[in-house]
Design a protein that fits this description.
Layout lengths: L6 H23 L8 H14 L1 H5 L4
Length: 61
């Protein structure tokens, strides 16, 4: 079968290539899709930055 010694070896190669193709397709589909909780997370970070005393001092440690 295509020069492979065993059908299981061919199956392993086929599944490896198939899973790689599925990973690439998933990445292309979801490339610029924003996360659902991204805006909420940005608001929380902004609030945290205003309340953190180490950031408000302006100095380095």
């Amino acid at each position: 079968m295509f020069g492979f010694g065993d059908a299981w070896v061919f199956l392993a190669y086929a599944l490896t290539l198939g899973s790689a193709a599925l990973c690439v397709a998933y990445g292309i589909v979801n490339w610029n899709k924003p996360r659902e909780d991204q805006s909420e997370e940005l608001k929380e970070e902004a609030e945290w930055e205003t309340r953190d005393p180490d950031l408000n001092e302006g100095g380095s440690r």
